[in-house]
Amino acid sequence: MSPVDCSLNEFELTSHRAAILDTADRFARIELAPLFARMDTEEWWPEDVMRKIGSAGLIGVSVDDSLGGAGMDFFCQGLVIQAIASLTVSQASPCVLSPATRTLSEAFDQLKAELVTDCAD
What we know:
By secondary structure, the protein is mostly helical. The chain has one domain: Acyl-CoA dehydrogenase/oxidase, N-terminal domain (Butyryl-Coa Dehydrogenase, subunit A, domain 1). It is built from 4 helices and no strands. α1 crosses α3 and α3 runs antiparallel to α4. 19% of the residues are buried.
């Protein structure tokens, strides 16, 4: 993850962050919005939607890139959630956070296994 630039207001909508918001908004409107009604009413989850979200770089936004995330800050993650939530609140967090949580969980499990092995030796 890149070091934090302390000269920048951490809540400033920089051109880079505006581009992230625009990308997430455009993606949500084109790829996800047509699916939301069915997802909500039928509790249905399309099989390929996570791949699409991941390909767009919108999963694991705040997860370090060494763990498979995008390596951005929590503000950027919030922008992605905001873009999706502007269309449907019910799908915003699951779309963005579930895979990131799974990635972190897998990383912690791997780390725990390595630490336990090191302690046992």
